[in-house]
């Protein structure tokens, strides 16, 4: 009897870890499958965007939970965001504090992500961030991005819920429709200013 329970427990853990029974997820609001291959194709070949729709600056206001994209001072696009779980507790100090950084950075990489759709990596930590972490005897962390939604919300059905909560590890999360817009209009090297 004990052996049967142990075997069933192990099987249950394996099923849980493997994700069996996980609802099918979608990568865009038009219900196409959540596809890394499409994202990688875009990375390889780029996307055709008119020059006047290419951004030269991104501005984030953490308190407003708002991201805006500009070209030559003209607003191209704006959307709501979620922050790190402790995003309202000030500037990021160290790895694992779940705070979203504040300061001036730039986009360094576009990344296809099977867990969070697409992401735009920022140049955190800068020298100031590293010095602040050292002053606290800590490491600054890294891998801060603007990213899309997790698989369970890939079709956008829960955008209202996710945007009403801060849930990331320090990144800025936007709806997948928004990350598609940013992905097309933002090239590596675009400046991003993150304000309190």
From TrEMBL:
Biological-process GO terms, alphabetical: cell wall organization; peptidoglycan biosynthetic process; regulation of cell shape
Keywords attached to this entry: Cell shape, Cell wall biogenesis/degradation, Peptidoglycan synthesis, Transferase
InterPro entries per UniProt: LD_TPept_cat_dom (IPR005490), Transpep_catalytic_dom (IPR038063)
Alphabetized GO MF terms: carboxypeptidase activity; transferase activity
Superkingdom, natural source: Bacteria
Coiled-coil ranges from the UniProt annotation: none
PROSITE patterns to which the protein is assigned, alphabetical: LD_TPASE, PROKAR_LIPOPROTEIN
Protein's name in the database: L,D-TPase catalytic domain-containing protein
The keyword Transferase is assigned to this record: yes
Sequence similarity: Belongs to the YkuD family.
Pathway in which this enzyme or protein is active: Cell wall biogenesis; peptidoglycan biosynthesis
Keyword Transferase: yes
Naturally occurring in which organism (per UniProt): Sulfurovum lithotrophicum
Domain L,D-TPase catalytic: start-end pairs: 56-195
Active site: 147, 171
